[in-house]
Structure of L-lactate dehydrogenase:
Amino acid sequence: MVTTNRSRVVVVGTGQVGSAVASSIVLQGLTNELVLINHNPGKARGLAMDLADGSEFLGRFVSIRHGDWDDCSQADIIIITAGPRPVEGRNRLDGLMAAVDIVTPMLDRIRESGFDGILIMVSNPVDVLSWYAWKRTGLPRAQVIGSGTALDTSRMKTIIGEVTGLDPRTVSGYVIGEHGDSQFIPWSTVSFVGKPFARFLADNPGRYPGVSLNGIENATRRRGDEIKNRRGGTSYGIASTVSGLVKTILWDERRVIPVSTLIDGEYEYGERDVFLSLPIGLDGNGANEFTDLHLTAEEMERFHHCAEVVRSHCALIADRL
Ligand SMILES: NC(=O)c1ccc[n+]([C@@H]2O[C@H](COP(=O)([O-])OP(=O)(O)OC[C@H]3O[C@@H](n4cnc5c(N)ncnc54)[C@H](O)[C@@H]3O)[C@@H](O)[C@H]2O)c1
């Protein structure tokens, strides 16, 4: 008798991001079953058909179909990607009210379904919406995460890889805080080929002209806007990131990834009731076990600024709870 569980992932929203996330999950064969939900069911059905048409050439069979909210009750992971289409020149927080209008009925249907898996918020502004989703669904804190600065961290590693010509996976470290303009890189956490990256740059004067820590941080922060300006939106980077989270959770890998999660009095961070990204252990039970980063005083100040930004936007939607 087979004793392994069948896994089910539900993707809500089948626009650019939802389609790319679904595709990444299917191409990697991460789940037994993938269910797509869209307010226009025809679009979800079309995407399911399109993705399923490559089955013959994939490494692992994934059962793909469109579905509805009843499918959420037996889901292991639900990923919410529905939201107002990102508009050039507007930041992620600008679309908050429209985003809340879109996700509120979804979160209610998810709660009513009895879902007890891991909810991954991707829609922006992701930190504010993750907090809202946690409150609105009543799920335990470990089971609600936002993709947060996992993408920004990957962007930072990609940029360092491009600058040095080495594999980005050589970099260890994090972008933390808000997935937005106040995000920052605590350079005290970033190491490269066995030493702090700041030391690596200092040890190689003249080898990387024009490269600075500030420059890398700004390029990381601006990268999403730059992609949006060039191709109208971002989708593949976030898709790889979210499917990485799915793999870590479903396969119980216990990777440490900075995702947006409830910060409520942990270690020296001194924050409560706010969702921000810090590196946290991810596994089949969700997000547990923070790392104490021992931020410098300046980094801590920047972390508190992120909390202020996110909290002030949560206050704007508190009456929607
Ligand atoms: N967290 C991240 O790092 C990250 C990265 C990229 C995009 N995003 C966010 O992902 C979201 C989707 O972006 P996209 O480029 O796929 O946009 P898109 O316009 O291509 O897709 C939006 C999706 O939302 C659905 N939708 C829109 N209005 C709806 C409504 N009233 N009810 C139900 N569904 C509705 C649409 O049907 C579509 O499936 C946005 O919030 C965007 O900011 C997040």
In short: The chain is about 40% helix and 15% strand. The first strand starts at residue 8 and ends at 12. The pocket of nicotinamide-adenine-dinucleotide is lined by residues 13-18, 38-39, 81-83, 85-86, 99, 102, 122-124, 126, 147, 151, 179, 233-234, 238 (CB under 6 Å). Residues 43 and 110 are 20 Å apart (CA to CA).
